[in-house]
Amino acid sequence: MRYYPIFADIKGRPCVVVGGGEVALRKAEGLISAGASVTVISPKLTAGLNKLVRAKKVLHIKRGYMRGDLAGAFLAISASDSRGVNKAVYAEASSLDILVNAADDPHRCNFIMPSVLRRGSLTIAVSTSGKSPLFAGTLREELEKVIGKEYEAFIEILGAARKKLLKNGVKNDKKESAIKAFVNSPIPLWIKLGDVKEINRFLQRHLGKGNTLSRLGVKIR
Known about the structure:
Blueprint: E1 14-18, H1 22-33, E2 37-41, H2 47-54, E3 58-61, E4 75-78, H3 83-95, E5 99-102, E6 115-119, E7 122-126, H4 133-146, H5 150-167, H6 172-183, H7 187-193, H8 196-207, H9 213-216
Parallel strand pairs: 1-2, 1-4, 2-3, 4-5
Antiparallel strand pairs: 6-7
Helix pairs in contact: 5-6, 5-7
């Protein structure tokens, strides 16, 4: 099966997690980090989920899943260890055209979740189309060794530089050339070394005098 890879904006959207175990906790935390409005349905919760409930980060419905629980939801995740529950959640979601994923039950999914590496605004998703989530996770761990935290600041610099070029009305060919220079530069290494002077020299060379990290509003440490 081929999947269409997208990054969905779920900020403020109602999302339902069915289940109260560690898997449900991980799914809820991922949804919360993306700004979703999360409801967890389960008779019992792990300590971690209870903490989220107390912090009012999720709404808890203290019972098992019932048909009708997905009404109005944008997305649903079944993190139950019951195939019967997965089947019921999938059936309701399908009838309502809701995105649904059942943990470790690929036949009850119309979308799958990749293994994700985040570095600030940089998001790298790794997927094997559900064939081996373990390998996807292993590959993500290898990428973590190569793409360090310095890329958080690097992406901020790239964004600020692009904004500056657009604001200054730089012609397309010159803008493309400048952006390529940034992308192919050793800035990530300079960030790692804390070499502010070298970065500022580069910024002024490609964006004009007076352009520095502080002027662009970017901090590297």
